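Today's session is about reading a structure prediction critically. Students often jump straight to the picture, but the first step is always the sequence itself: look for stretches that repeat, for charged clusters, for runs of hydrophobic residues. Only then move on to the predicted structure, which in these notes is written as discrete structure tokens rather than atom positions. Here is the chain we will use throughout the hour.
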Amino acid sequence: MLPAQLASPYNAPPSIGAGWPRIKAMHKFPINRAIACQSLIWLASVVLTAAALGVLAGYSVALGGLISLFPGIWFMMRYFRLSGARAMERVVRNAFVGEAVKLVQMVVGFALVFALVRPLSPLAVLSGFVVVQVAGMVITSRLASRNPV
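Below is the predicted structure for this chain, in token form.
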């Protein structure tokens, strides 16, 4: 054997491995914490809006937040249920399918709210949607940076 082949870790016997880097255990993403935080922000925005601007604005914000919250929860449950290298192809497929279904759910949610709910404050519906959507993105990114998958 040549000296370069001896130094290769591929040629090392199984008993030698003390100097090799250790792989950290993969951690599951804390889905329940993300859902709870996003739900609390939704509830706080509904209560504060209802107290400050009235019942109409409060339930309009509630509906807008739910249009974002329910599809987001569905997506998280679908996307984060699989992990690991063996499931990588299914994880990627779940991400694409989940995002597409989530967008369809949001469009249907907006259509149903604007078609069926009277009276309604459209600006409050959109505000509730944006608040919950942004909160979900911030919470997910913070939890992901603390708990790398």
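Discussion point for the tutorial: Residues 29-146 form one domain.
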